[in-house]
């Protein structure tokens, strides 16, 4: 079994780290550069930085802030928010990002996934999918979860894998911020449908939730925010608990 990854997520708005519930009611969680530095030194395998209002405000991701974070860390660093072109990605990679995450722009222009994979390699391209379960069907949402579509999660996941995405970051809007556990049934189905890594996002509340998503959800990595930002879970302690139940992680 491949090593499972623990990934803190920095959701950025107005230059600060924020966290909400079901994509709403955001509260401040600290300075992103300070948090990134702490996570890099305390066991995080990777870091995800999402400029959550860039698409809505129709601007590019904050490249200067990306550079400041990258200078502090020595772990893989994925950046997303407002990315809509090869040029945008070029800027972020030159400012220290290792991978980029595309979401709304990829739905509006699926060819973007092909173009990014061809230019930078699939290992650089993460497709983030925000989906909400409505009447039993998982439906893709855009612009930070504010805009519903008629696109089905599993159909879209298969397409992005075929277009060259290297990973899928799936966030369940139903589970986001609730601390009731990840959407493991949907995650397991995603893992069956595509042969690229799946990152679980939305719902982490305790250590057992991480165990469950690796075992039941077949997730390759687990992303969380508030439980790490507000020191409810220590990453080293979490990894030790994962090792105790036979889940391979890097210490």
Strand element count? 12
What class would the helix/strand composition place it in? alpha/beta
Task: Describe the sheet with the most strands.
Answer: 8 strands, parallel, barrel
Overall pLDDT score: 90
Roughly how many Å is the radius of gyration? Answer: 16 Å
Inertia-based shape: globular
Number of helices: 10
Q: Helix proportion of residues, in percent?
A: 25-40%
Which percent band covers the strand fraction? 25-35%
Secondary-structure element sequence?
A: EEEHEHEHEHHEEEHEHEHEHH
- Give me the side-by-side strand order of the main sheet: 1-4-5-6-7-10-11-12
Low-confidence stretches: none
Question: For the terminal residues, how far apart are their CA atoms?
Answer: 16 Å
């Amino acid at each position: 079994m491949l090593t499972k990854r623990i990934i803190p997520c920095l959701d950025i708005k107005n230059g600060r780290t924020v966290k909400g519930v079901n994509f709403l009611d955001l509260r401040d969680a600290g300075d992103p550069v300070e948090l990134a530095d702490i996570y890099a030194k305390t066991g995080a395998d990777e870091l995800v930085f999402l400029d959550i209002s860039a698409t809505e405000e129709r601007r590019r991701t904050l490249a200067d802030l990306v550079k400041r974070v990258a200078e502090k860390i020595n772990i893989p660093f994925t950046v997303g928010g407002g990315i809509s072109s090869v040029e945008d990605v070029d800027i972020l990679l030159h400012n220290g990002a290792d991978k980029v995450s595309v979401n709304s722009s990829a739905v509006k222009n699926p060819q973007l996934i092909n173009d990014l994979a061809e230019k930078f390699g699939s290992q650089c391209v993460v497709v983030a999918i925000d989906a909400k379960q409505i009447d039993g069907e998982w439906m893709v949402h855009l612009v930070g979860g504010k805009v519903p579509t008629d696109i089905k999660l599993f159909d879209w996941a298969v397409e992005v894998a075929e277009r060259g995405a290297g990973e899928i970051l799936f966030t369940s809007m139903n589970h986001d911020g609730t601390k009731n556990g990840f959407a493991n049934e949907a995650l397991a189905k995603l893992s069956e449908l595509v042969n690229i890594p799946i990152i679980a996002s939305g719902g982490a509340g305790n250590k057992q939730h991480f165990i469950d998503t690796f075992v039941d959800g077949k997730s390759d990595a687990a992303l969380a925010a508030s439980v790490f930002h507000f020191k409810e879970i220590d990453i080293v302690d979490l990894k030790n608990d994962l090792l105790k139940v036979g889940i391979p992680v890097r210490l």
